[in-house]
């Protein structure tokens, strides 16, 4: 299996606005800051710096959005995945936990602002996010989530069973948590739009320029890439799960977990009246997640994690996706064709919160986004730009730490947890006397 799945097979590659005109690096270029990685983290960092008048060069090994930023499902939900907000204090320490909470929970406002300010063509919709209760016993946990997110300024509320059905079009939910600021977009279109914005603000973007190495040169850093060199005072690595070389050991700070995304043929106008009638993003509430929403053409775009035969046998995978969708929405009286199915890679690490590494004086990296791409990558640019502009380390929203490899068990722990969640979901559903989805 190749290291990365084909980029050209994604729905987003077929439908995104065209990329900006860029070229590989040639010759020697001088910059204040060199940003490595053309995904959301690198692009928003470069945008912040260029807008502030900092001479910035961004290098991308492939093309803009080639990694997770162009392959994800397009959900934009400003939350944390694994930890409650209260638990983050113990994980990150204070004041960093509260600072990061403020950044993450307001990340969609940042996305909406950039889309509007730079007129980014990316199908941006901000109609909310629904995390459903698949059993009645799931409701207290969602109520606790509502309370803690609202306490930090988020706009969320609970839906009763009737409201959840009206919002989603599914009769399977016992209630839900609704986050009004949730959104969705064409992720590759968003990445390409950010690149245009960087260039409009005076930043330089070079694609097809893989970094071969970084060495000290005359009080600065020489970044060898493509057929040239960027000499910069500071270097920021923002390559995530698609890190290949560049700095020794950086690709060992995480372990890869794969995810797949699939898109149906466009649903008919009649089907769309009752299936996701408010164009929201839906999380079905299970640990073995099924998250789905529409794209601009009216296709259902859904994502799951590979498990056993699911993800290996593509015909079976499509069958699972169809059966779950039709179980959630019995009003779909046919098997819609999944016209696109592609894979992406997540840079997983134990903490599931991005890690900010000090590699050398004037050189840093961020990895370990752990699947929180769109909002998290978008807000990280602000933190990295502050570091580059000499905001004291003690005042940043992420704590700098020495480079460290991911624990060996991260090669298998995420899949083990996914299987545990699946068994737990099954047991809770049976105990509650609720209906089980197919392939549960």
TrEMBL record:
GO MF annotation: an example: oxidoreductase activity
InterPro entries the UniProt entry points to: FAD-dep_OxRdtase (IPR006076), FAD/NAD-bd_sf (IPR036188)
GO annotations of cellular component type: cytoplasm
Pfam families listed in its UniProt record: DAO
Keywords: Oxidoreductase
Domain FAD dependent oxidoreductase as annotated: residue spans: 32-387
Identification of the protein by name: FAD-binding oxidoreductase
